[in-house]
Structures
1.
Amino acid sequence: MGSPCELLCEDESKSKAKTITQLVADEAWRIEDKFSRYLSGNIVEQINTAAGAPVEVDPEAARLIEFSTQLHVMSEGRFDITSGVLRQAWTFDGSDRIPSANAVSAVMQYIGWHRVNWDGASISMPPGMEIDFGGVGKEYAVDRAAGLIKEQDESPCLVNFGGDLAVTASPAKRSAWQIGIESLQGESEGPERVINLASGALATSGDARRFLEKDGVRYGHIIDPTTGWPVKDAPRSVTVAADTCVQAGMLSTLAMLEGAAAEKFLADQGVDFWCLR
Amino acid sequence: MGVEPWDRDILAKDEMQMTVDPLEAAVDDHIYFSKEASSGGRGFGGGGCGCN
Amino acid sequence: MSKKDSKKDSEKNSKQISATLAAATCALLGGVLPAPVQAEEEDKWDFNTSLLYYGEDDDRVQDLSLNLLATRNFVDDRSLTMTLALDSLTGATPSGAITQNVSQTFTRPSGSSVYTIPAGLLPLDDTFLDTRLALTATWAQPLGRLYQFSFGASASKEYDYTHLGLNARLSRDFNNRNTTLSAGLAIAADSLDPVGGTPIPFTEMLDVGNLSNRVGSEDKDVVDVVLGVTQVVSRNFLVRLNYSYSDASGYLTDPYKIISVVDGVTGDTVPRVQTPGVAGPSHIFLYENRPDSRTKHSLYAHAKYYIDGKVLDSSYRYMTDDWDINSHTIDVRLRWPTGGTTYLEPHLRFYSQTNAEFYTTSLVDGAALPTYASNDYRLGDFDALTAGLKFGWKTGGGNDMSVRLEAYQQRGTIPDGQLIGNQVGLVSYPDLDAIIAQFSYSFGK
């Protein structure tokens, strides 16, 4: 998953907690093995190396692709799972190495969901293009894990994969899980805010560590796939609360892509959110 | 006797706490401490006074 | 397209994302509808403020007080709570002397002047003017997974009284957090510095300027122990049981209270030979005397029951002490939501106490003095009733406001055999009628 994953379980029984932990870990590894761009032998590698030929996908992959399609339309192109190749032009290492306009437009040829052929069962795209579920994979795994726990057990649990989290039920004593949103100064200052989550999910998009800075201008790592460039005036971090981690994650990503209008966008959606600038 | 953790929704409500309004409870305790010979019961008084 | 139309369109588009996203997510996750999200930012600070008016009938005590409570929440369930109470007291209180068919003159506690009570009226001492400031601070935190711990300090100051106290409490959860046992200890060191000095008990009230029967300040120490158990009975029913022990030692007398010395046959207060040109008491009054220790035991039971959005809060307390005072208190409140953000809360409290063993209406001239004696009505035999109504609402900003109005009355009786001769029909327990009005406002930050 690329980040530390933890499970908090409130249960008197140690063995039950162990069972649930195994359940969550197994599901997280399953999803990572199946959908990670970095691993070989899975459906994503198959699709990315098909060189224009159509690839038939299983129902779960189909649902993810279908979801990505709908998000692409909803976001007017800002959410695009073919935008992963932008990493060839952009490396967010805190340096001042901004790619040239030529470098960016060269890569832009290989981006665009409209170039993809998806009929609901099989997918094909021009050679050189790639899909990457990184924008939704972690949140999807959190919701899947939470769902599996709820099927088996009523214990209050909190599934947290690198800051994208969901709860299965509210804990016994306090009536809500206490979640601290890390302050921008790093962990030494303590959480910037504490949120009481009784049910639902939280997801955070942020650029606290991945960024570029040149000539006093800070470039966040969320790139607008329609332009190939990072969004101007994006908040440093956006946390959204929603019914599921997938919804929270999508809304926080889309908010970042709205740049200066992030807060207005989220206010219009009627969700609870916390933006740090 | 009791409930499972996931059944504590009603118990978590503000109005179901043993002391809903600590300020009002302290104020009442003080009035009755000054006018009657008994005091406290639910906890400690916040402090004595010269009224009894 | 006009500017207004395109704005409406983009607003509509923005709003549609939530619904479409929800539908898309539902399809992705296999159609199981999750519980709606409940997220609330924790307030760093919680504030609670209130303004209270307490007023008794017949020119007796009136109190206006301002109360503030501030809690600073820290991560991991730790908190610091601070309170401040500022009281301004005015009015008069029964001095303990009994009503006579002649006018009576008394020396003020300061010894610097006199006041006269007309015939037929209950003697009230209106020197009772004071401003009081009380502060508390309490730190609370969990200890490990099942323990909760708190410790605090309290202090108060008024013109003639100082209080300093410390307290600590430890509680532990059992039985899947359905049972909580708690133990608490509080100690207090108070000192009294009465206006004019502390009168030596059972000495006479003297002329203006004569403070020869006064000594300096006096101390009082109190130790309180509370043991309790809270039990969750069912999803909507919670009960609590407390046992309290209190031990007070030191100066427990009221330095301003007196007792009339009366003729053993007529019951009339014995007149005093006054020195010409010197102002002083018209009759003989002795300063009261209470024991120097008092041990109290209380049993307190409290239940909260939730039914259909309403909460019934009821409690009973039994108190008994070694001054022979026993009391019962029954308190019932019903919180009744009226509409989405408002509620009504009727309140009824019934209180009944028996008199202290040394409670005496008057002392017979020439008879041997009892060991202790006091005619303080608060140690008498009386029943009290409080009836009130509270109305609460949530402000636009989501904060809580409330007002309450209550009537408090005490009706007492003089124990059999205490009234002598002419006192019958003239002297009675000083019944009390008071109004309590309070406005509260809570908010968080």
2.
Amino acid sequence: MSPAAAWTIIRISIAERLVYRGDFALSTLMRFLPIVTQVFLWAAVFSALDAAGRPAEVAGFSYHEMIAYYLLTMVARAFSSMPGLASGIARDIRTGAVNKYLIQPVDMLQYLLLHRIAHKLVYYSIAIGPFALVFLLCRGFFPGWPDAEVLFAFAASLIMAFLLGFFLESTLGMIGFWFLEVNSLLFVYMLFAFFFSGHMFPIDMLPAGIAEIVRLLPLQYLAYFPAAVFLGKVSGPQLWQSLAVEGVWIVFLAVSGRIAFARGVRRYGGYGG
Amino acid sequence: MTAAIEIKGLTKSFRVYQKPEGLRAAVAGLFRRRYRHVEAVRGIDLTVAPGEFVAFLGPNGAGKTTTLKLLSGVLTPTAGEARVLGHIPWRRENAYRRRFALVMGQKNQLWWDLPAAESFRLHQHLYSLPRDEFERTRDELAEMLSVAHLMQQPVRELSLGERMKMELIAALLHSPEVLFLDEPTIGLDVVAQHNIRAFLRDYQQRRGVTIVLTSHYMNDVAALCRRVVMIGQGRIVYDGALDGIVERFGGHKVVTLHVSESWSAGLLRGLGELLSFEPPRARLRVGRADVPVVLQRILAAGQVLDLSVEDPPLEEIVAAWFSAERSAAAALSGGGERGEGEA
């Protein structure tokens, strides 16, 4: 695809996103509400521990670290979450809208990636205000700015979280070529992702056996890993090694998505009309 | 001159899950699924020369749209070969995709919430069209279809007819050499249908593109296509001129006469199958071979003020053929089926 075509897709996707800007801005702001409940929840947990005379630490996280962790996973999810990607692909397969990627000289995965980049850019431009405010108000929970190396790794982990999320969900959406109704399957995936990505709580809190399995899965890179990097829970050679493993996962999922698409199209029924 | 489209033995069958009715059957279906093989296209052979305007005619489910989808690479065939402009469609090479277009009357390919101009701009870049060439083509097409003033309006706010025109422009921006049109006038009012038809005829004559069209409206076909391919149950049953259909499938002529008051319905019934009798006008259906004899008997029977002999309307012939086809299919227990299987 030519750079001009790529830019046009991004530009048009942004324009499309801005059509319903009111609805979009409201839903963006609403996402910040759960922060308040989370802060109160962990405050209650840690004060109970304190009252019982137990060490004020859960799975190696202090109260302040836990809140910082939660806020950082929100940043990670802002990169890795792909609302409507998998279900959108499955819907396009079911309704036959996928035809246009077969007829026109455009690659579906490239197109969707650019489309998603555009959506993320619009999201960040609106969400950056509330994010800045929340971090400013909660700055007391953070130990301070990490060094340049960690900041660089953190930035890399966010961009890679975006790519991993995209290729994971787009590959899941391809299941629509085999099973027309994939929503319940996607629901199960979302449930697993919620717990095992570290979005709900740090994966260190999981029972030892399960935590070990979860560390072998790519889901941790969607939320846990960037936050752990920022808080210095992963450091030294282990940090770069983990990033390399994440890179391998991204390539693996991108290739899987391509193979699934190529095979899916062969058995595709071209539904509708 | 080589053919624009060449098809040999093209076949496509689908496996369709038979969803059972009722809860118990649905649960059983989780374990043993019943499938039906539907042969949508069964061994089609067809050659279309460059610059031809061909119509696919046939009842719903005859295989017209499936054939168009095979030719545009949306579907991969079960067996057989096809080449369009020398390309195998289902390889979906960009070199081929830049040379053809498919317009589906029931599908929207434009960005719903944005003005059509934005979708056109995207097409310019996807098809790598030079800017001035793109703008010239766009403005020329918008002019021909008289929608230049609507290009900045969100597509969702256009009428169905206006949207169809925009779809056509989007499909023609890259000046395709082959154009597939699936029901381009479906759901449009008579005026809009007429406009689209006039445009297509004009455009085809100017550019000499090869067009394959499917339509339910005989008017579309009669106005546009010299060659008609009739498809029934996945096979080609007729390939030739439109007029030929009348000779091949229309075994009757319609005799219309204006008669004096002395004529009765009983007298008319003796001459042929009486279609209608609203004095002084009567319409009779007469076998082709019997026409000369019947005319002599009419003139001998009494005073006739006016008389004409015509072929029945094409629409009627095709409709009669379609329904005959359908009942034949029903007699063979369910159309394009070929046995049931479990998987």
